[in-house]
Amino acid sequence: MVLTQNVKFGKRDIVKESMISLWQIFLVFAKIGAFTIGGGIPMIAAIKSELVERKWLNDEDFIDIITLAQTAPGLFAVNISILTGHRLRGTKGSVVATIASCLPPFLIILLVAMFFTTFKENEYVIRAFKGIRPVVVALIGVPMITMVKATKMKWWSWIIMISSIILVCVLKVSPIYILICVIVMAAFISWYRNRDLQGNGDTRAGGKEEVKR
């Protein structure tokens, strides 16, 4: 049994599965890092395939980690490795997952940088890169559709999503401003609802005291 930490609420949670070793985490994230093409976003499909299907993470944990990794500052691939590693094995898991996900692409890019000038005009290399582009689009699109289905979005979630797409794609608004606005709005709504709940609780408590009298 593995004692892990819930990413969303910071609560301790018991996962009923055999102990996940640091070596297993290293191998899985090294595989993800080596075969993820197109940046951090396509990494989502690989992580879902490797971790959710292994039952190291459930769908709810997966969505929470993606959300935190996307909103936190820094590289998405590094953020998601840190959060997932911590979810599995704490601080050691974060370190191992981050090193494993960054090491293969670092070595590959180093080799490419050394030899790319020699082969960049090669017809076969050019065709290979053109063939990879549609795959990258699919790797980005498929996990996005899967996440939308898994989150069971409400009507207001659809409004926020569609509005964000229009603001970014049509009006060319920076995603940073959209994230800041949504975070502030969500924090205010959460505070307002908690205040109402506390007020209703105090009112009910006062009513019960009057009845007793």
Percent of residues in beta strands: under 5%
Low-confidence stretches: 1-18
Strand elements, count? 2
Strand order of the largest sheet: 1-2
Major sheet summary line: 2 strands, antiparallel
Distance between the termini: 53 Å
- Domains counted in the coordinates: how many? 2
Q: What is the H/E order?
A: EEHHHHHHH
Mean pLDDT: 77
Q: Helical region count? A: 7
Structural class by helix and strand composition:
mainly alpha
**Inertia-based shape:** globular
The gyration radius over C-alpha positions equals 22 Å
Which percent range fits the helix content? Answer: over 70%
Question: What does this 3D model show about the protein?
Answer:
- The chain is mostly helical and 213 residues long.
- The chain has helices at 22-35, 43-52, 59-71, 76-119, 123-151, 155-169, 175-212, and strands at residues 2-5, 12-15.
- The protein has 2 domains: 2-152, no CATH class; 153-213, no CATH class.
- Helix content is 77%, strand content 4%.
- It has a two-stranded antiparallel sheet with strand order 1-2.
- The termini are far apart.
